[in-house]
Amino acid sequence: MKHQRGATARYARAALAIVGFAAWVDGCGGKSRELSERSAPGGSAGSKADTGGSANRNGGGDAESEAGADGLGNGGAGVAGSTFGSGGRSAGGSGNQAGETTNGGDTAGGAGLTDEAGRGGEMPSDALRHIVATDLNISLDTRVGVAILTLAASTSRGATFEIGDTTITSVTDDDGALGYTTHGATLDVDVPAASEELKITIEYRFKNHEAFDGISGRGYSFTWPYYCGNAFPCHSDPAEGTTFKLFVKGGTSIANFPTSIPFPAPAYMAAWAVENYFPLFPGTTKAGTQIEVFYRLGNPTGEADARAGTAHLVQAFDWLEQHVGPYAFGSTVGPIPVRWPDVTLDGMEHHPLWHVNETSMSDELVQVHEAAHGWFGNGVRLRCWEDFVLSEGTVSYLAARVLEEVGATTVSTAAWDGYESTLLAGQQSDSIAAWPSGCGSIDVLASGLFSSMTYVKGALFFRALEQRIGRPALDRALSTFYAQWVGEAAGLRDLLDVIHETSGYDAGPCAEAWLKRVQPQATVCD
Ligand SMILES: [Zn+2]
Predict the structure, then answer these.
(1) Backbone φ, ψ for residue 213 (5° rounding)
(2) Which DSSP symbol is given to 153?
(3) What is the spatial distance between Cα 230 and Cα 126, in angstroms, rounded to a whole number?
């Protein structure tokens, strides 16, 4: 088990899924530096991707690992000079230079454009036009992506996307090139108002990112909380949900990813990992969800770590399905170990194949924490980053609770001890309430909200609530809330409303005491 005392302090830019609370308090070494300070060496990582074309190690084991799997993809390795089946027409001449770029698109009237479309950078745009579906085809060798986006109907013309530092090379629909303008990290596309959904195809080149802010040359992608634009055109608002189709190829090994995420998910949920893995199949839940656990072939302790960390995962997943509600993101789920260059990162909820730091694969708390994000954070999305505790607090509570329910009492007890120790150790330096007021006005990283304190305050609030209303009442509230909001974005206030409705207990004052103050004032819910 790793040792990370320093993680009780705030740390920005680490991963959403920092959950090794038990480890945080028994260890050594300060690891609270911001991730931006400990980003990976970009040079070596970049060269790794560059040389991918000659390193095809697509062996029988990997083919086996995907056979019969439900919706799992395997992008193959070392495929150079990829061609994509989608789109392919070039709007021509745009996107190579930095800064603002305008492309007029078809002036022959294709796709209902008028002649002034895209001219002079005055393009109108419905900035709220939602992305309903995202179909991605990523070539890691050529660093080229093709995104087919299905856009929601809109009474307004135009659509706006985050594009990070990618370079747009064409924007088309079935009728030809579309006018578009880039403004730094934003892309405005001139699509017409439409009473139905419509599809556009965006081709782009991307850069590798080694600070957990895009597509890493080390073989994984990581875009939480708002770096999806560096990987594909997107909306990073956690409230927005899109389905995904994903195909990734290239790199030095096999790209592993879910080929389809058929249920709306936040943009940061889609991800891949390029390694040679072998799967374990520890079991299937009563609802028929198959748990699949990967380990890296080159890791001598990989299999043992994977078995240890997922010893109760089937039972835990089953408990969540039975007590919270049906899982939304497919019928084959489980963890993929990733070699992140940062041992303070434990996991990231890339459902249905969540990522866990290879150094944390043996940690049952991490595994169940990431699994539970399938219900909170992903299944029910966050309306605002201010509601972060609805994801992390709920999941931190559930991870410890569920492990107790399925008999992993030692792990559960250590988790609760860890939460309490983290709260005590962090109180003096804490600077933000777990549930700040407002919506959309804070930066979840810069504000310090992404802190272990938010996780543990939330978990301890739910435990206080459980002790006040009883486990059956809390479970009933969580399942009612999930049924009402799955596939949508919600806030913590919505959950408090459901708790009140289903249990008769107004948890508002207790939530205020635990979550609205920097220093929680409550230990129990009165
Ligand atoms: Zn988490």
Answers:
(1) -140, 35
(2) P
(3) 21
The pLDDT value given to residue 482 = 98
The pLDDT value given to residue 30:
26
The rounded distance, in Å, linking the Cα atoms of 44 and 47 is: 5
Phi, then psi, of 257 in degrees rounded to 5: -165, 160
Average pLDDT value for residue range 294-312? 97
369 Cα–ligand 1 center, Å: 6
What angle in degrees, to the nearest 10, is found between the helix axes of 313-323 and 364-372?
Answer: 30
Q: Do 166 and 214 belong together in one domain?
A: yes
CA of 230 to the centre of ligand 1 (A): 22
For the stretch 150-196, pLDDT in tens is 999 999 999 999 999 999 999 999 999 999 999 999 999 999 999 99
Question: What is the token pair recorded at 112?
Answer: 């209902």
392 CA to centre of ligand 1 in angstroms: 5
Please tell me whether residues 268 and 400 are part of one structural domain: no
In three-state secondary structure terms, 133 is strand
Instruction: Choose the final residue of a domain: 225, 251, 274.
Output: 274
The model's pLDDT over 355-400, given as tens digits with 9 standing for 90+, comes to: 999 999 999 999 999 999 999 999 999 999 999 999 999 999 999 9
* Same-domain pairing of 267 and 281: no
**Which tokens in the block code for residue 378?**
């992903």
> For residue 383, what are the domain limits?
5-44+277-515
Residue 247 lies in a domain: yes
pLDDT of 426 higher than 70: yes
- Percent of the chain past pLDDT 90, that is, above it, reads 73
Q: Which of 114-123, 135-144, 274-283, 344-353 has the lowest mean pLDDT?
A: 114-123
Question: Which residues lie below 8 Å from residue 6, measured CB to CB, with a gap of 6+?
Answer: 29, 30, 31, 32, 344
Same domain, 182 and 307: no
Residue 30 alpha carbon to ligand 1 centre in Å: 21
Q: How far is the CA of 9 from the centre of ligand 1 (A)?
A: 17
CA of 102 to the centre of ligand 1 (A): 40
186 within some domain: yes
Question: Is position 499 within any domain?
Answer: yes
217 C-alpha to ligand 1 centroid (Å): 24
**Considering the domain boundaries, does residue 58 fall inside one?**
no
- Residue type at 395? V
Exposure pattern of 236-255 as b/e (b: 16+ CB <10 Å)? bbbbbbbbbbbbbbbbbbbb
pLDDT of residue 60: 30
Domain count, the chain: 2
Per-residue DSSP letters for 444-458?
TTTTS-SSHHHHHHH
Q: Are residues 313 and 182 in the same domain?
A: no
Q: Among 274, 309, 337, identify where a domain stops.
A: 274
